[in-house]
Amino acid sequence: MAWRTRFAPAPTGYLHLGHVVNALHVWGLARAFGGEVLLRIEDHDRTRCRDEYEDALLDDLDWLGFAPDIGSTDSFRAARHDRAHAPRHTQRQSDNDARYAAALAALTACGLTYTCTCTRRDIARHAPRAPGEEPRYPGTCRDAHHADSESLARRARMADGDVPFDDGRLGPVQQSPAAQCGDVLVRDRHGQWTYQFAVVVDDMAHDIDVVIRGEDLLASTGRQLRLAAMLERQRPLSWWHHPLLVHPDGSKLSKANHDTSIRERRAAGAHAAGLLGEAAFLSGLLPAARDLSIDELPALFQSGVNAFSVS
Ligand code: GLU
């Protein structure tokens, strides 16, 4: 039976070359090694996501030739954002509030979450950090027993100890969520579900076997595995963190470097094969930039990656 991975963009802006790099890995590994790709729209944060960005990313995916096996771009268009009348889409996060609420209720019933009244400033004051280190929640409200309320944040308790996992590209990795970030925010004080929580709940709901994403999300993996265990996920999950896109001079992709969206590149006359080849080159999948067709993706991975397996 085919294993399943996902492409899960957040419609907080237009698709750019970094997304194309991720899509090349997701579709490439799936097509090369018998996987199927599910499309999920990660618009859990309604303050930052916009419908016009979702429309644009669906359109850009079609234009680039990345066709999902589960959740066609048309199925998202059919489940419109006209929420009063439109059907829900099980793979769009803003349509699945009840799913996250049920997962939170399950954790809470086991005493694994608590209400947190800390502001960002409180946390910054209590947890001075070394340069480059991520903010760690110091646990101020852990034993405070504040009453639950939709207008207060909720955190999940991270037990002490290491979380080991194998990355398909990087090998064995060990992380310690309690030391890295402390108790994970599940819902913020505006009632928004957080990325960390929604992604774990959805990867379970969608029967995802392999998560293929950029190395910028590597630090999230331990805490996501811990949350999945707390939610009693049974299905094994494998990981593949790929390199991020860099310019030939080694500098990172950024707006300051005039890196433009796929939308702008299209408007300026770019063609899909040219952009696919450029993204493949800038992420180390091709030795030089050239036109690349979607049909060539399996070969890119079959030659360089020979030990990919789904446990
Ligand atoms: N939605 C996330 C992003 O656009 C990706 C989530 C994931 O791959 O875990 O960065």
Give the structure's gist in a few sentences:
By secondary structure, the chain is α/β, with parallel strands linked by helices. It has eleven helices and nine strands.
What does this structure look like?
With 311 residues, the protein is an alpha/beta fold. It has a single domain, classed as Rossmann fold. Helices cover 34% and strands 14% of the residues. The protein is built from eleven helices and nine strands. It has helices at residues 17-32, 51-64, 73-78, 97-109, 120-126, 177-180, 195-205, 221-230, 262-267, 272-282, 297-304, and strands at residues 3-7, 35-39, 113-116, 153-156, 163-167, 171-175, 184-187, 210-214, 238-242. The protein has a three-stranded antiparallel sheet. A two-stranded parallel ribbon has the order 1-2. α8 links the parallel β8 (210-214) and β9. The longest helix is centred in the N-terminal third of the chain and has 16 residues, at 17-32. The protein is globular and about 60 Å long. The two termini are 13 Å apart. The structure holds glutamic acid. Glutamic acid is lined by residues 8-10, 42, 199, 213, 217.
Total number of β-strand segments? Answer: 9
| Order of neighbouring strands in the sheet with most strands | 3-4-7
Beta-strand share of residues: 5-15%
Mean pLDDT level: 91
SSE arrangement, N to C? EHEHHHEHEEEHEHEHEHHH
